[in-house]
Amino acid sequence: MAVDVLLGLQWGDEGKGKIVDVLSAGYDLIARFQGGPNAGHTLEFDGKKFVLNTIPSGIFFENTINLIGNGVVIDPITLKKELDKLKDAGHDLLAKKNLLIAKKAHLILPTHQLLDAANEKKMGEGKIGSTLKGIGPTYMDKTGRNGLRIGDITLPDFKERYQKLVDKHVSMLLQLYGEVADFSEREALFFEALDVLRQFPLVDSEHLVNNYIKDGKKVLAEGAQGAMLDIDFGSYPFVTSSNTTAAGACTGLGIAPQQIGEVIGIFKAYCTRVGGGPFPTELDDEMGEELRRIGHEFGATTGRPRRTGWIDLPALKYAIMLNGVTQLVMTKADVLSGFEKIYACTHYNYLGEQIDYMPYDICSVKPEPVYKEIDGWNEDLTGITELSEIPAKLQSYIDFLEAELGVPVKYLSVGPDRKQTLVLH
């Protein structure tokens, strides 16, 4: 049985958590393959709302096992808070025994977060827009072969290993920034959280996932952030520190490329972005503010207002190509209800010519979007449950996107609740 991959095709916040939750009942294993607590996957059902930062979004189904994969970076303090909130809401994952953690997943230390904040502050106006969760410095230690991993917390000399890395970070902070903020309180919470994590099954995840495949069980790899934030193929340097594309599922879980099955790409009916970086279709006006207000476009993790704009087809085509997307999910179609006209960027005017792809120097030479005007729809979508209830103008928009992108839109989300999802094909 192949591994299906679900990921975002824009700049994150596409609604991945909700769709994983919708699909989870049909899978035996949900596995997060990259990112860290900078993710904010929002799930709503039965009148309740949950925001998951590190824990996979299939956690609410009794027969589905969930794995935090080796490609993820873990902040024990944040993960413990997630676990505590879920337990208070009646979901004790330790008792349910449906959460596993990869031994090879790297740890975010309190000093990683100090480095993150200090670096962002020093960059000033050129800052990336980091969530300040320590993600970047942790991945830097990982690639620099200095990092600590979940499996290390079971070793007798873990505290010595920890102190060695902390001493290195403190030295860096003093040399580069001249000061080190007090982190003693957070350090105490860090070790308290590790005591909790030691109670969960810590596994050799590459063997576990491949055994699931060998046994013919269904596996869904859950991505975080979005394809346009990929460290290699996103709008560098305004990107995250991991591979957010389908290729990241191979390294983030230890599976071979030929084991990839369906690639499910999620996109909003419009676009949003958090932090700095290029955004060709951004609406820095009343229309953009209206999209932000109606769509509640504020970060689930940080609370920061998201930048908003019209859908960007060159960027979407690029993401579809990179990931080998086989089926699409369109979310937040309900947000566009009431707009007389909506717009889709079909090309860019770039250095005197019209192109339909993402240029290398998109960060330095701002391409001008070329728009196609599309009739909007007035109907409230949030209560529809049948395909026959989809407004004709929305169906025309979907048909237009399928023709442009060359991939079927299989699912349509018309609200945040798991029930507000229609299967189109």
TrEMBL record:
Coiled coil: none annotated. Its EC number is 6.3.4.4. Pathway: Purine metabolism; AMP biosynthesis via de novo pathway; AMP from IMP: step 1/2. Mg(2+) binds at residues 13, 40. Its cofactor is Mg(2+). The keyword Magnesium applies. Substrate binds at residues 300-306. Binds 1 Mg(2+) ion per subunit. GTP binds at residues 12-18, 40-42, 306, 332-334, 413-415. IMP binds at residues 13-16, 38-41, 131, 145, 225, 240, 304. It holds the Pfam family Adenylsucc_synt. Keywords: Cytoplasm, GTP-binding, Ligase, Magnesium, Metal-binding, Nucleotide-binding, Purine biosynthesis. It is found in: Cytoplasm. SMART domains: Adenylsucc_synt (SM00788). The active site is at residues 13, 41, 142. It is an enzyme of class 6 (ligase). It catalyses: IMP + L-aspartate + GTP = N(6)-(1,2-dicarboxyethyl)-AMP + GDP + phosphate + 2 H(+). GO terms for molecular function: adenylosuccinate synthase activity. The keyword Magnesium applies. InterPro entries: Adenylosuccin_syn_GTP-bd, Adenylosuccin_syn_Lys_AS, Adenylosuccinate_synth_dom1, Adenylosuccinate_synth_dom2, Adenylosuccinate_synth_dom3, Adenylosuccinate_synthetase, P-loop_NTPase. PANTHER family: ADENYLOSUCCINATE SYNTHETASE. Belongs to the adenylosuccinate synthetase family. Plays an important role in the de novo pathway of purine nucleotide biosynthesis. Catalyzes the first committed step in the biosynthesis of AMP from IMP. Homodimer. This is Adenylosuccinate synthetase. It comes from Mucilaginibacter angelicae.
